[in-house]
Amino acid sequence: MKINLSLLLPILIFTACNRNHRDTAEEQKHKEDSVMATPAEPLLIPDSLPAPGKSTIQFSDVVGWKDGRTPVAPAGFTVTKYADGFENPRWIYITPNGDVLVAESNGASSTVKKIENKIIGRSKSMNTNKSADRITILADKNNDGVPEIRQTFLSGLHQPFGMLVIGNLFYVANTDALYEFPYQPGQTEIKAEGKKIVSLPKGGYNNHWTRNIITNAKKDKIYISVGSGSNAAEHGMENEVRRANILEVTMDGTGEKIYASGLRNPVGMGWAPGTNDLWAAVNERDELGDELVPDYATHVKEGAFYGWPYSYYGQYPDPRIKEKDQRPDLVQRAIKPDVSLGAHTASLGLAFYTEKEFPAHYHNGMFIAQHGSWNKSSLAGYKVVFVPFHHGKPSGLVEDFLTGFIANEEKSEVYGRPVGIAVLPDGSMLVADDAGNTIWKIQVESRK
After folding, report:
1. CATH number of the domain where residue 156 is located
2. What b/e sequence results for 247-263 when a residue is b if at least 16 CB atoms lie within 10 Å of its CB, and e otherwise?
3. Which domain holds residue 131?
4. Which residues, 6+ apart, have CB-to-CB distance to 190 below 8 Å?
5. Phi, psi torsion values for 416, nearest 5 degrees
6. From the CB of residue 406, how many other CB atoms can be counted at a distance below 10 Å?
7. Number of folded domains in the chain?
8. To 10 degrees, what angle do helices 5-17 and 111-120 make?
9. 306: in domain
10. How distant is the alpha carbon of residue 342 from its chain centre?
11. In 3D, which of 239, 95, 113 has the Cα closest to residue 165?
12. What predicted TM-score, i.e. pTM, was given to this entire model?
């Protein structure tokens, strides 16, 4: 269903008010020589962007996976159902001992919001029911590739998302706070009371309720991604305090500072292998037309500003910012991101491939899960893409990796929507399909 925003606006205002094989050594050497001989700078970023245009709403219609259908990986890989029957499995975390934790949560929907979701079609595109607010554990104790244990690991949460184990502590980022819990390796359930160590701003435009967390190599800092509370600061910057940022705190939650700012909705985060570079997948702004603004992945410099809301993709001023609110000084500082991921693709999950099971082409590269568009006249995203890296930097074009999520493009029907990504110790990959309520496993095809 396509909806012109200009026609829909009165209704919304009313409602809201209430490679394909294992490489041989010779092939891999040739590939590495080719990469080293090719400059990376011009490959991934467009020189210019189009002018703003008409904005269109087109939510997908999730029809679910039937008759044994699965997503599609490149030749040489298999895709199987690792687990299903979840309630919006949004994010995945692998504990140091190899257990799989799945955060089941979604955006809160008030009565007014549910009416709006019904009118515009969002309720067909995603789970708009009450959030499950739990973390489920999948434990494969005998290492046969199949989890024997599946149970609730932690409940009583408030839209949980990011998870982290550091020593004997388990951290979880709710939408409104970061908590720590006592934890022992191999533990399959937490019953102890948690301790709130950081309060976080809650609520937000569309789905900017997620709060991801990672730590650094020294394990003495936690980095928290906090998306904006609006699309383009339409409610005023006073409502954006500590938002559109990556925050840094010490392990007990003290010493908070803004690590980087102007990131509209940073979600997936990771450290590029062999470097100290933090990378983030950033979900950019809406309502500027089909091709604006591209989501992106970028290395995040400490203290840097990335444009939101005053500019996008570096120093393109957002035309909606009122003259009295403009900040040309910040626009001049805005950093252009590294990798374009396409407009409205909802690029959220990020994982670097640090294992060896996949062919060498994928080693140390970056996988991005694209949850899929709603603000474009044709479907965009709905897949997992891959960016090859060499010596800690992007070295080639963005390429499709896991596809097959779109069922019927003309009818905007999709089977599911990928979001969280994690790599298991055995080198296989897990992808959380929150709309399909499934965790998919991608591994190299058996050569027995």
Report:
1. 2.120.10.30
2. bbbebebeeeebbbbbb
3. 3-18+50-444
4. 153, 154, 170, 181, 182, 183
5. -170, -170
6. 17
7. 1
8. 160
9. yes
10. 14
11. 95
12. 0.89
Asked if residue 216 belongs to a domain, the reply is yes
Classify residue 183: in a domain, yes or no.
yes
User: What is the pLDDT tens value at each position of the chain, 448 positions in all?
Assistant: 555 544 444 444 334 444 333 344 433 433 333 333 333 333 466 778 999 999 999 999 999 999 999 999 999 999 999 999 999 999 999 999 999 999 999 986 666 677 677 767 777 888 878 899 999 999 998 888 899 999 999 999 999 999 999 999 999 999 999 999 999 999 999 999 999 999 999 987 767 999 999 999 999 999 999 999 999 999 999 999 999 999 999 999 999 999 999 999 999 999 999 999 999 999 999 999 999 999 999 999 999 999 999 999 999 999 999 999 999 999 999 999 999 999 999 999 999 999 999 999 999 999 999 999 999 999 999 999 999 999 999 999 999 999 999 999 999 999 999 999 999 999 999 999 999 999 999 999 985 4
DSSP track, 370-431: E---SSSSS----EEEEE-EETTEE-S--EEEEB--EEETTTTEES--EEEEEE-TTS-EEE
User: Does residue 36 sit within a domain?
Assistant: no
The span from the CA of 417 to the CA of 437, in Å, is 9
Q: Shortest CA distance to 381 belongs to which of 407, 430, 344?
A: 344
* Cβ 264 vs Cβ 244: under 8 Å: yes
- Residue pair 346/334 in contact (Cβ under 8 Å)? The answer is no
